[in-house]
Amino acid sequence: MSFKLVILEPQDPGARTPAAKTWPDKIRELVPGVEVRYCTTLEQAKEAIVDADAAFGDIVPELFERAQKLQWIQSPQAGPKAGYYHDGLVESDVVVTNMRGIFNDHISAHIMSYVLAFARGLHVYRDRQRDGKWTKGYDTVHLPESTAVIVGVGGIGAETARVCAAFGMTAVGVDARVTEPPSGVGELHTPDRLDEVIPRADFLIVTVPETPSTQGLFNRETLSTMKRTAFFINIGRGATTNLTDLAVMLEAGEIAGAALDVYEVEPLPSEHPLWGLPNAILTPHVAADGPYIDDRRTEVFVDNCVRFSEGRPLRNVVDKAQWF
After folding, report:
1. If pLDDT is split at 50, 70 and 90, which confidence band does 203 have?
2. Residue whose C-alpha is closest to residue 216's, from 33, 126, 82
3. Using one digit for the tens of pLDDT, what is the confidence trace for 240-268?
4. Residues 140-144: contacts with CB under 8 Å, at least 24 apart
5. What is the pLDDT of residue 11?
């Protein structure tokens, strides 16, 4: 089946991928008769999307309401920003697919860098190095005797559990969708058991996307049952964690430390207290960085274009009401 596809280039220059310019030719080669319109502005997309069957990008309400034939949208991300799944889109019959699965190895490696840093005190020695102090002493965490509670054991969380298990750690998974424990997950629980498993964590690792049920989930009330020796790690979405509550708990020593790659507001304001806390490790939303991402993103999108043209099931279909 031939179809019309609109590709809307991200309006934020920092979100653009050089590989996108190659997509029209790749898709035309594999899908005979396809019409591809590559749009660099919203104005171009407004005209092109009227009779489009499919689209790639952030199809905001002003674009969506102009579309008369749209059946499928490919999200550029695994977990797009809040507002991507607007009411009109959620209530429609349009199928949305995302990019989950292409970041698993990079993000799990980033998570493990946090775990190892906290286990061996690298954040403490980092500060002593800066101050020119040759001072020994840190209560190391013996990983084979530690427990990682991983909230979200989809692709990223499952890979993290596998690596944790390779270090001898016990991995406890919490997930709303996964019904069988992935490799490395010793126990699997549903989110209603979260309060029961958090007290067991030496490392509480959050990989869940932002959804209606995860917004603000990790606040003082939820985290209050963590052990004082435990560490909190979030690489999912910033909106899942109340940073004011977290900073207060870190400063009071109610938990041992926290490592974050995502934040409620990005960039994290320079005056935020987290910047000055010695038991916090902060990275600027770079956990997914690494080689081959453009190739993987291209493969998912182009493959879905072929599937769409052939009437086959698409990869990574989203539950629009849950945004993931």
Report:
1. very high
2. 82
3. 999 999 999 999 999 999 999 999 999 99
4. 141/202, 143/115, 143/119, 143/167, 143/168, 143/169, 144/168, 144/169
5. 79
Structure tokens at 179: 């019904």
- Max CA pair span of the chain: 69
CB-CB neighbours of 190 under 10 Å: 12
* Residue 284: both structure tokens together: 């600027």
If you search the block for the tokens 């291209």, which residue do you land on? 298
Tokens of 59: 């199809």
**Alpha-carbon span 285 to 109, nearest angstrom:** 14
Terminal Cα-to-Cα distance of the chain (whole angstroms) = 28
- Summarize pLDDT for 8-48 with one digit per residue, the tens: 998 777 667 888 999 999 999 999 999 999 999 999 999 99
Return phi, psi of residue 174, to 5°: -130, 125
CB 173 within 8 A of CB 197: no
Residue 260's contacts (CB-CB under 8 Å, 6 or more residues apart) are 233, 234, 235, 238, 241, 243, 274, 280, 281, 282, 283
* Mean pLDDT along residues 134-139: 97
**Closest C-alpha among 3, 36, 17, 25 to residue 76:** 17
What are the residue ranges of helices labelled H in the chain?
23-30, 42-48, 61-64, 87-91, 104-120, 122-130, 155-166, 194-197, 220-223, 243-252, 293-310
Query: Does position 175 have pLDDT exceeding 90, yes or no?
Result: yes
Count Cβ atoms below 10 Å from residue 246 Cβ, excluding itself: 25
